[in-house]
Amino acid sequence: MSKQHTSVRAYGILIREGSVLLVRSSSPLINPPLWWLPGGGIDFAESPEDTLLREFREETGLSIKDPVLLDVVSDVRRRPNGDRIHTVRVLYTVSLNGGNLRDEAVGTTDAAQWFAVDQLSEVNVAEYAAQAIQVALEK
Q1: Beta strand pairing call for 35-36 and 39-41
Q2: Average pLDDT, the chain
Q3: pLDDT digits over 118-133, tens only?
Q4: How many domains would you assign to the chain?
């Protein structure tokens, strides 16, 4: 029997010099690989902003600052096992504070990379991420 689940997550859009930072899904089942915004699930009693800071460090090695709420979006999708997941995404624009870009060693992502904004159409970017980047660029 399939299950239903809700997941609340925080993601950040970091744009510098015409490029945006994305992370790649570590799932070998997704081909071509899927890229999305750095971020992830909000832990119990954790604020969305604290989640954003933690997830950025874990997935990219970078420290960020000045999160500004951009949007809150949600969608419902079906997982390969039949379960349905309702994902609520809290989206922020952020600024770079420091650190050295690196890939996540073990987790849901396995690479962090800058992409020129004008070349994103050539990359398999998650729909929510592509839409959020567009909104951020229009502000």
Answers
A1: unpaired
A2: 95
A3: 999 999 999 999 999 9
A4: 1
